[in-house]
Amino acid sequence: MINIENMEREDLFINRELSWLSFNERILREARDNKTPLLERLSFLSITQTNQDEFVMVRIASLKDQVEMKDYSRDLAGMTGAEQLRAISQVMHDFIPQQYSTYNRQLLPRLEKEGIFILTPDRLVEEQEAFIYDYFKSALYPSLTPMAVDQGRPFPLIPTMSQNIAVLLEREDKDDGKQFFATVQIPSGVPRLVKLPVGQFAHSKGLLPRTTHCYILLEDIINRYLGEIFHSLKIVERCNYRVLRNSVMDIDEEETPDLMTEIEKQLRLRQWGEVIHLAVRDDVSPKILKKLQKMMRVEKEDIYHIPGPIDLSFLGKLSRTPELSYKTHLHYTPYEPQTPAMLVGRKGDSIFDLIKQKDIFLSLPYESFNPVLEFVKQSARDPKVLAIKQTLYRVSGHSPIIRYLEEAALNGKQVLVLLELKARFDEENNIQWAKRLERAGCHVIYGLVGLKTHSKITMVVREEEEGIRRYLHLGTGNYNDTTAKIYTDLGIFTCAENYGVDATEFFNMISGYSEPTGWNRLTIAPYWLRQRFYDLIDREIQNAKDGREAYIWAKMNSLNDEGIIRKLYEASQAGVKIDLIVRGICCLRPGVPGISETITVRSITGRYLEHSRIYVFANIGKEEVYLSSADWMSRNLDRRVELLFPVEDEECKARAKEIMEIQFADTERANIMASDGTYKKQDRRGKVILDCQSFQENLAMERAGNEKTRWKERIFEPINGLGAHEDYDQTDASDMLEED
Questions:
Q1: pLDDT tens digits for range 402-428
Q2: In angstroms, what CA-CA distances link 160 with 277, 315, 408, 521?
Q3: pLDDT tens digit sequence for 331-341
Q4: Which 3-state string (H, E, C) describes 325-374?
Q5: Are residues 687 and 547 in the same domain?
Q6: How far is CA 560 from the centre of its chain?
Q7: Do 266 and 176 fall within a single domain?
Q8: What's the half-sphere exposure (Cβ side, CA atoms, 13 Å) at 700?
């Protein structure tokens, strides 16, 4: 057995930030894959942009703060903050050209073959030119403000993520060579993608107007007529640019008398943080670039030259525009979440009757989220319900859950809601929801000092003939009816007494000062969850040493906790077979001789975002299955309120295990991790083709009695020879080695 205590950290662990960048590269692979429907490829490319923006504003910002404070501590992989920033910069400078190669060389030509054009001003026909000029004069010109920069007018504060145009000007009536600098902000309240008339354009291309769609970017319209806002001045040079600022909130919760007020203040300050990322068009002149760099104090390595539209997130809106919905071949096949299999054929007067009969398992988005909504709605209206207690982290923009909780309070129920205000980038929405719930009479807790409450639990207290009964929903994902259609998550309904007792203690703990000394079924972070996982892994280690069957299956979003990783290495050296499904960050190195030979890691990317957390332990034939809101990340184990709960009903347990087995058998969505941190697609040789997400769609349809396809024949096809993604587009020699 190798003594890992004496090994260099870089030999044992992968840097968290570089692992995340690898995750975004896997998302880019989906955008580059010819098998992905074209408009869905646009969506994936858009996601790489929004992912990257958040990464810069939070992760890079945190590292810059660390360097600024002269903190020379090293991360899990042995890197200082400065070393991480240099490595990140190199990867991002390689990644962005791949994004734009995907956009310019792959997606734009394919869109045009489908009659979808994103036009630049030089490609417009006369009719379109007249349209954009009228649009500029009527809708844009009144709101544009040129901001000169000189001795009396300092460089303005440029909001984070805003689109801007930098301009160098000269007077038309003087030939003295004197130049002036100004900047113009693109209006943020106007749709960035403008629909153009297509009549003359379609005829010029030999296309039918009804099947042709033309668009132009807002910044291109403004650039076309920019001279109209600088009277008597000549534009010498111009360049589009965009900045990202440090968006890390600095809140001392111990010293803050009113958390909501402080967060509202920090939200106002967020858009004015230090500039840490400057994106400019690649045609920027040295003069303008020097001016921007000086005015915003940006380091050279934080400047990115963009060969196309700055910020590709607009592609997400284009991919979902209703006017293109008729082009069904460019979208994923529509899928409607099915009636949960464990509710099919069951009868009862209410959701409570159904839960009382037997625990119910939900697998989203393959099965419908409606039972969760119905659970809260019926609880709000049922005269037998005395109280509803729920944790909320992220909810949708028009959340029915919020409406039902308001209704419950107005109906005289006791309603307790822990609404986590510190959910990153959802702070503003959650503040509004919290105020609304309070107005309705709900008791709202904003979160616990120093901790984020990330657990997913609802408890309903109901007075019945037999006495008080507690009904629970426990889940792995947010109470969000929108993401429930695109995130894979699991949940269980139960009214088992042991769970109910624990749930009561849990809510008493977060609403008051109660500190339970023991639990029946639930395990809570940050107090007991880490040790619980250690104990479960240690049991497998001992079983392996005793020559008994020992294995661990675990599915999560991310894995970066040093203590857990070291435990898994210890388990591997003892002979425990460990198979991990980790969608995003993974700091563990699998398959290292003598250290992690028995560990495999795969990442599933595809139509749905894999969000569920499942933990399975062999336990010498008495298999234990757990679901959780927590990943194996230090923040989840030490700095968040999380829940781990066992799946005890045999049918529910079988369903959770089945999901793992399907994903282990996948040949289409799985990316297999090598010990150096790179990923490659699953080798399909000698295997049957299985797309785990399509398979689960069809399985849910079959179980709901809605079998539209002979899915077994469609999904399972034996293949011989290579056959591995032969149409996978790798046109660039510099394509990535390796997908929130």
A1: 999 999 999 999 999 998 876 666 677
A2: 10, 20, 40, 46
A3: 999 999 999 99
A4: CCCHHHCCCCCCCECCHHHCCCCCCCHHHHHHHCCEEEEECCECCHHHHH
A5: yes
A6: 17
A7: yes
A8: 21
Report how far residue 40's alpha carbon sits from residue 411's, in angstroms, rounded to the nearest whole number: 44
Q: Is 244 helix (H, G, I), strand (E, B) or coil?
A: strand
Helix H or strand E encompassing 221? helix 218-224
Site of tokens 């509710």: 343
Angle at 255 between CA 249 and CA 260, to 5 degrees: 55
Contact 74, 80 (CB under 8 A): yes
Is 497 within a domain? yes
Q: Are residues 678 and 538 both part of a single domain?
A: yes
Residue 136's region, left for phi above 0, alpha for psi from -120 to 50, else beta, is: alpha
What CA–CA distances, in Å, run from 516 to 148, 374, 463, 503, 507?
A: 63, 31, 25, 11, 11
Q: Which two tokens stand for residue 431?
A: 């503040």
Q: Do 281 and 365 lie in a common domain? A: no
Q: Are residues 646 and 700 in the same domain?
A: yes
Name the catalytic one among 454, 473, 611, 725. Answer: 454
Which of 475, 490, 520 marks a domain boundary? 520
| pLDDT given at position 10 | 75
- Assess if residue 557 is contained within a domain: yes
Question: Domain range holding 460?
Answer: 341-520
- Per the CB < 8 A criterion, the answer to whether 448 and 510 are in contact is yes
Is 479 found in the same domain as 541?
no
Residue 324 is assigned to a structural domain of this protein: no
The reported pTM is: 0.90
Q: Which amino acid is at 274?
A: E
541 and 659: one domain?
Answer: yes
Residue type, 431: I
For the chain, residues with pLDDT lower than 50 are: 255, 709-740
By C-alpha distance, which of 733, 587, 681 is closest to 94? 733
Tokens of 411: 């109906």
CATH of the domain at 461: 3.30.870.10
Q: Are residues 514 and 579 in the same domain?
A: no
pLDDT digits (tens, 9 = 90+) for 471-519: 999 999 999 999 999 999 999 999 999 999 999 999 999 888 777 778 9
The reported pLDDT for the residue numbered 456 is 96
**What's the rounded Cα separation, in Å, for the pair 449 and 639?**
10
Q: Is 454 a catalytic residue?
A: yes
Instruction: Report the pLDDT value the prediction gives residue 130, as an integer from 0 to 100.
Output: 97
